[in-house]
Amino acid sequence: MTHVFVAPHPDDVALSCGGLIASLRELGQNVAIVTVFSGSGDGTALNGYQREALGFGSKALWPNSEAFNRASIRGDYPTDDPSIAPPWAATSDRLDATQDDADAAAKRFWQRSSWYRRASIRNKPLAGQPLIDDLPTQGAVMTEELTEAAAAGEVMARRRLEDEQFAYFAEAAVIFLDLPDAVFRGYEGDEELLGAVREDDDAPTERVRREIIRLEPQAVYVPLGVGNHVDHQLCRQVGIDLLAESRRWVMPGPEWAGKVVFYEDFPYTWWHDFDRLEQLPAGALDGLDQDLILAPEYADVGDQLERKIRGISLYESQLDRLFGGEAQMAAAVRSHGAKMAGLCGLAGAAERYWRSLRA
Ligand SMILES: [Zn+2]
Description:
Elements: E1 2-7, H1 12-26, E2 30-35, H2 48-53, H3 92-110, H4 144-170, E3 173-176, H5 189-193, H6 205-214, E4 217-223, H7 230-244, E5 260-263, H8 268-271, E6 292-300, H9 305-313, H10 316-323, H11 326-343, E7 350-358
């Protein structure tokens, strides 16, 4: 028997349920995380927007196929016009002087073998010698397109690695479904990413269902979709679909009521001051059986709060984008935990969940 946490992205479960997971592990319960949208699709490109949305906006990416890509460095062309020359740029005169020095040094070196080879400091071919950058076996030959394709896969690989590190830290199992993140399914800009799910973009219910059934779940935790990210909405739909499942059977089917639990998406729930289901966009919970209610439940995580913070800090690539740094993340987690605890009369920290129950 396992507690299965469905995460739209690497990091969502640590952010929203890190306290409860630590608490369950202390009680010796099994925890498995199913991370759904951890893939980059065919990985053909990663544009500036995608990089930003995945949390890598200002981070340097190092393609693994080469140590250094010169394509991104602007040419250092000599100019004598001081109004457009950056202060560190050399003038033609200075470059000529440097070239003379280089020629003299080359002569001194090569005369020992009575062979003399010049090299241009301006990266221009001399005496028919090919430029090193033009030789396919030397230097950078990757086009920008190839570099970006590599980077798309790498961004997601790095996020999966952070998720694995968290799973190791939390003593949980992690399963990656590697479905492409929304930014690789054509959603662009916050308006689309936090807007309506496209009609042809189905919830991955069957994929997730197959994984969780074999784990014999004692409970399945899915996001409530606070903040309305499309990937979170689709994972909420998985929970709603599971709850509707008994209707598909003529004989009494598997009963998911009581087992499906919705978690509040942190930090969205903190930013939006979420408190009531009515604050979700209209229609968010359509498809729930009429006789089902979602009842709030508070998990006391006072003793696990610092562990939760440590767990979130493993998602280094996301801390700046979400919080502006690690210290700010810790402060937000503590404030939100205290707020939730206050709502249920606890002194320390709590996380709030919404359990499905038949009325
Ligand atoms: Zn997410």
